[in-house]
Amino acid sequence: MKFASYGLLLVVVSAFAIFAMAAEEKKSKLPPLIVDTSSPLLLKEADEAMEKKTHKVDNQACYVCHANYEEEALAGWHAEEGVGCVDCHGDSFAHRNDENNTTPPDVMFPRKKIDSNCGECHEDHDVAADEVIERFLERKLNKLAPKELVCTDCHGHHRLKLRTVVWNKETGELITGKGKDKADSGKPKAKK
Predict the structure, then answer these.
(1) Can you say whether the dihedral through the CA atoms of 108, 110, 116, 119 is positive or negative?
(2) Of 4, 45, 138, 182, whose CA is between 20 and 30 Å from 55?
(3) How confident is the model at residue 129 (pLDDT cuts 50, 70, 90)?
């Protein structure tokens, strides 16, 4: 009998608790959303309004970790022309989602491939010699042979000054950085 009365008490208390929660939920319900259908903002209009406020491309997913490129000249010039990070480095979803920072971007450019990649869009280099020399002196380049120079030696500073992770840009293999042992166990390699 003792257990039966505790069981009945438990049922009554539970029912009361459920009733009280339902009453509280009714009080806290938000009013219905009222949508003004007389002047809807179409998605295309929203996109156009956003483009007017910012660059033609959205590199924010990359700037989460690479904030230094948000103000970098080379990235800025390209963004204004509608060329984003993904246009050169691929979508790099695995790289963007890797909190351990051991997955390389889809596409990286070893020094010997920088000029050919830039040449895919920039067919010529029509700059006066005095401007080239001025930039060379401004950058304090220590390279004397023209064949040693690549586009990014003069254009932008498209390199990280402080690197916590280093990959082989040809193979995507992690050379140095936290989690190297984990990366050696089957992480995807960068595309060439």
Answers:
(1) positive
(2) 138
(3) confident
CA–CA gap between residue 192 and residue 189 (Å, rounded): 9
Q: Higher confidence at residue 178 or residue 164? A: 164
Instruction: Count up the domains in the chain and report the number.
Output: 1
In a domain, 158, yes or no: yes
The secondary structure of 128-147 as a DSSP string is -HHHHHHHHHHHT----SGG
- Better pLDDT: 117 or 15: 117
At CA 74, angle to CA 69 and CA 78, rounded to 5?
100
Q: Is residue 10 part of a domain?
A: no
Q: Is residue 64 in some structural domain?
A: yes
CA distances from 88 to 92, 120, 142, 143 (A): 10, 10, 27, 26
Distance CA 173, CA 187 (A): 9
pLDDT on residue 97: 92
In which element (H, E) is residue 166 found? strand 166-167
In the three-class reduction of DSSP (H, G, I as helix; E, B as strand; rest coil), residue 37 is classed as coil
Q: Please give the average per-residue pLDDT across 21-40, as a whole number.
A: 66
Is residue 33 in some structural domain? Answer: no
CA–CA separation, 27 and 21 (whole Å): 10
Domain that includes residue 102, residue range: 49-183
Give first-to-last CA distance, the chain, whole Å.
79
97-115 confidence digits (pLDDT tens): 998 888 999 999 998 998 8
